[in-house]
Predict the structure.
Amino acid sequence: MSDFRLNRFTRGILLAVVEAMMPRWPEFVPPIENAVIARIEKLVGRASPVVRIGVPAGLWGLEWAGPLLGAGRLRRLSRVPLRERIDLLENLGGSRTPLLRRWIQIYRALIAISAYTDPRVEQHLGIDRAAWRQSRQRLRQRLLRADALRPAPPLPRPLGSVGVVTPDAYLDPRNPAPTTTECAT
């Protein structure tokens, strides 16, 4: 894991993308944009170097995608109103070009994973992962205690401990040569 952090420019672009792509609930509008960005940085920091380079590079591509793809005036994505950003990103996500669709899907997935794992969102959706996590840890402790009561199986003999078996002796059905799969006593 690395100490991956977006610089202030790419962080601003990601904030614009997060505001446009974040899941929305009519009755619940949590201010979780910065928490989502922090989780994305953590996710990307755990990924390969290619991803750690590709995500910020892709953000710069999204910043200039509108003018480059003929989607309007010469304005950066982070400078346009939210409704225009949403429309531009939806148009890119619905593109006939598979590369553009996948490009948007990467950011959509990162944002969705990061938003839905926020405790405020989980609480709003009725998901209690904290209780589930505690229950899982209690079950693990019970299984470890139960396993400690069980006697350990015998260890197999190490390879070569029964001596060398010649090919003729091995192939002779009358010679019951010891095998290495027998357990040590």
Observations:
- Residues 20 and 86 are 5 Å apart (CA to CA).
